[in-house]
């Protein structure tokens, strides 16, 4: 697979000063990705909980989020760490989101590869990412990076049950 790397993108660890922007970016990306899939009340509740204080705490808590900066603006973020489940996939990318205005520019690829490099440096073999089965854009993104679905589970949002897909790399 040929990778095209942008020289105008910086991926770096988030700083406390980034917390407010991350809260806003979280709201924008989650509404864009999940409006119509996750019930409105549950989606807005998740967004309210991911406020500036939450992001500040996540950043202070250790290996916090990575952010993608394009043209001096935070345009995407990713969180990662040890896999939450058991199995052959030891590393996990918990979240990877790019602002709608910046999608299709390669920022997600930069974030993905930066997460993989950090997980590899920690000696975590294999990688898993979870995505809603109806989130075609996310599943396509991970498929193009070589990930393959290997498990499904159900997640409940209020009265709505949605299928999630585990995508893995060994």
Can you describe this structure?
- This protein has 170 residues and is an alpha+beta fold.
- The chain has a single domain, classed as Gcn5-related N-acetyltransferase (GNAT) (Aminopeptidase).
- It has 5 helices and 7 strands, in the order βαααβββαβαββ.
- Strands 1-2-3-4-5-7-6 form a 7-stranded mixed β-sheet, sandwiched between helices.
- Strand 4, helix 4 and strand 5 form a beta-alpha-beta unit.
- Helix 1 packs antiparallel against helix 2 and helix 1 crosses helix 3.
- The longest helix has 16 residues.
- The protein is globular and about 35 Å long.
- The chain starts with 8 loop residues before the first strand and ends with a strand.
Helix/sheet category: alpha+beta
Structural domains: how many: 1
CATH homologous superfamily assignment: Gcn5-related N-acetyltransferase (GNAT)
The proportion of residues in beta strands is 25-35%
Low-confidence stretches: none
Strand order of the largest sheet: 1-2-3-4-5-7-6
Number of E strands: 7
Which geometry do the CA atoms define? globular
Instruction: Determine and state the CATH class.
Output: Alpha Beta
Helical content band? 25-40%
């Amino acid at each position: 697979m040929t990778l095209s790397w942008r020289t105008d993108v910086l991926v770096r660890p988030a700083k406390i000063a980034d917390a407010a922007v991350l809260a806003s970016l979280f709201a924008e990306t989650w509404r864009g990705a999940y409006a119509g899939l996750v019930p409105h009340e549950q989606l807005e509740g998740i967004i309210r909980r991911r406020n500036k204080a939450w992001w500040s705490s996540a950043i202070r808590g250790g290996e916090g989020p990575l952010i993608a900066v394009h043209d001096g603006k935070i345009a995407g973020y990713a969180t990662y760490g040890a896999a939450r489940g058991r199995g052959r996939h030891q590393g996990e990318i918990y979240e990877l989101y790019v602002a709608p205005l910046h999608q299709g520019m390669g920022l997600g690829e930069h974030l993905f590869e930066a997460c993989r490099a950090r997980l590899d440096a920690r000696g975590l073999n294999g990688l898993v990412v979870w995505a809603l089965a109806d989130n075609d854009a996310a599943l396509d993104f991970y498929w193009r990076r070589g990930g393959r679905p290997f498990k499904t589970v159900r997640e409940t949002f209020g009265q709505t049950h949605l299928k999630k897909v585990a995508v893995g790399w060994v």
